[in-house]
Structure formats: C-alpha cells, structure tokens
UniProtKB/TrEMBL annotation:
SUPFAM superfamilies: TPR-like. The keyword Repeat applies. Gene3D superfamilies: Tetratricopeptide repeat domain. The keyword DNA damage does not apply. Residues 1-21 form the signal peptide. InterPro entries: TPR-like_helical_dom_sf (IPR011990), TPR_2 (IPR013105), TPR_rpt (IPR019734). Pfam families: TPR_2 (PF07719). It comes from Treponema phagedenis. This is Tetratricopeptide repeat protein. PROSITE patterns: PROKAR_LIPOPROTEIN (PS51257), TPR (PS50005). TPR repeats lie at residues 102-135. Keywords: Repeat, Signal, TPR repeat.
Length: 204
C-alpha cells in the first residue's frame, strides 16, 4: 500500500481561489497547519486545522470547512487514528472540487485497506481512478487492494471448508458415540429381561 500523501497541499490551490476575503485568515491557518504536518508535528497540525474549521463554520464557508476536514482526516491517518480520520471524511458532503472528491476517495481507500475491508478499498480506488485516470498511486493501491481481496476470499473459502470438515467430523463422532450408547442400552435391556423371565427352581 502506497504511503499517505499530503494531498491537501494540492487542494490548497483551490482554497486560494475562493473569492471571499474573510477566508484569508483561514488560508493562513491552513498553511501553518500544513507546515506543522510536513514537520510531523501532528498535534500542532491538528490544532491549526481545527482552528481553520472553526473559523470556516463561523463564516459559513462550506468549501473552507471541507478542506479543513480533509486536512484533519489526513493528519489523523498519519497518527493511525483510523476512526477519527473516517469521521472527518464523512463530514464532507458532495464537494464540487473534483480534486477533493478524488482525494477523499483515495484516503477512504487507505482507511478501508487498513481495516482489512479489501473489497471496499478496491471500490474506493476504482472510483478515484475514474476521476483521475493517470494517478499512479491510486493505480498501485487499486492493484494491491484487488490482490488482497482475492487472497482474503481464498482464505475465507478455505476456512469455511475446514469448518465444514470439522463439523462433519464432529457429527460423525457423535453418531458413533450415540450408536455405542444405544447398543449398550439394548444390551442392558436384554440382560434385564432375561433375568426377569428366567425360570426359578421353585416354579417346578
């Protein structure tokens, strides 16, 4: 699986084209967040991106909030906080920017792969490639996820077969035990009947 890329760096270009002058402070906060991200200062990066998201919410700038959420998701992924990253991606609804759409699908694929949901990862990377057909990382991850999904399916089939074999063996053993018990009971019953109906000397 390819490493997580700082995809949101590319997305900042789109952020800077936002016409609202109120987003200037958000842009600066995002840049400082990215610099912290690049220096692997994850806690500081998270703080900056949270600040940016809060400011975006105050001015009701959905685009700015989307970029901040994506940046947070990418930072959480670097810290291996899978659920937190996934929650942030889910907060982004119907973005107009195709680069952001592709980036969300890419990171969602990474999350699915780490959760061992390989078939789901295949689907995410496939959708990502539909938006960006020449994205080499997405192609590589698509193939890796596809191979993992196929291997996982084979393992599942083997485990199912093994489980069925064990169950069959257990059932066979149970039948043998029940047969032995039944035979013992019949033998005891016959002995008991023979003793009850055995003629005594006083009867003659």
């Amino acid at each position: 699986m390819q490493k997580i890329k700082p995809i949101f760096l590319v997305l900042f270009c789109s952020l800077f084209f936002l016409s609202c002058t109120e987003t200037f402070e958000i842009k600066n906060t995002m840049i400082f967040g990215y610099l912290s991200w690049k220096n692997k200062n994850w806690d500081k990066a998270v703080k900056k991106f949270l600040d940016a998201h809060e400011k975006a919410a105050q001015i009701k700038s959905k685009d700015s909030a989307d970029y901040a959420n994506f940046a947070l998701a990418s930072t959480y992924l670097m810290q291996d906080e899978i659920d937190a990253a996934n929650d942030r991606l889910k907060k982004i609804s119907d973005p107009e920017d195709k680069k952001l759409q592709a980036a969300i699908l890419y990171q969602s694929g990474i999350i699915a792969y780490r959760k061992k949901h390989y078939q789901q990862a295949v689907s995410f990377f496939k959708q990502c490639l539909e938006l960006e057909p020449f994205a080499s990382d997405s192609k590589i991850n698509y193939e890796i996820s596809k191979r993992a999904a196929e291997q996982n399916e084979t393992i599942t089939e083997k485990e199912t077969t093994r489980s069925l074999s064990i169950e069959t063996k257990i059932n066979a053993e149970e039948n043998i035990i029940l047969t032995i018990i039944r035979e013992k009971e019949e033998e005891e019953w016959k002995k008991k009947n023979q003793q009850e109906y055995k003629p005594h000397a006083n009867d003659y």
